[in-house]
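Risk register update: the risk of archive-format incompatibility is retired. Evidence:
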Amino acid sequence: MNVDRYLARIGYDGLPRSDAKTLAALQRAHLRSIPFEAFDPARRIVPSLDPGALFDKVVERARGGFCFELNGLFALLLENLGFSVTRVAAQPWVTETDRAPTFSHLALVVDASGDRWLTDVGFGASVMQPLRLADSDVQNVDGVPYVVRADETPMHFRRIDIIDGYDFDLVPRALSDFAEQCRTYATDDDSPFTRFGPCWRWTPDGWVGVRRDRFARIVDGVLDEQPFSGGENAYVRAVRERIGIAI
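Archived output:
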């Protein structure tokens, strides 16, 4: 991996150290620079999880990706910078009681500055900084309240003012463990990624989102959605113009 090119892609020009301060700065820089996008699954293209292919797509071709791609590549960057990273399987919350299948989401647990941190650059409009794993108190990030419960089974992360989060464990996984679910997301007719192709991009005014059927914005943690029905051509144009993906 060309670490310098990756750091330039996310606009990080500091001196990277394997500590919590650097980890937080890297996560914020990553989220501000690289969009979450499921444009490939929306076209039934199965994303490659090969490290070289991920680097080419996200860094060299200035694309984005979804969780397996973004957290998969970010884990490699962190390891190249000296961090200890555990790839963990997570189950996003569908409702208050329903969970997506195991391996539906890839998250990272990173050791830094004597603590363990839940780190995620691939959960849509993601939390902008790592959350301490051992801290069950509310952790406010940019005015939005989150909690990580590592003292319960299953462990979970959630935004506490709405139903948004996921269950996870600390079993170490390989990126290849998520390949089958990655393929399912890109080929199954019922997959939200093939149906809607959700994409998100951070802007200084808030998150901007596009799906096949709606535009979205998140400002100060509040979601606003507007339906649109311009068809596939309108979706492709919106992804290019609003998300900034070169397609």
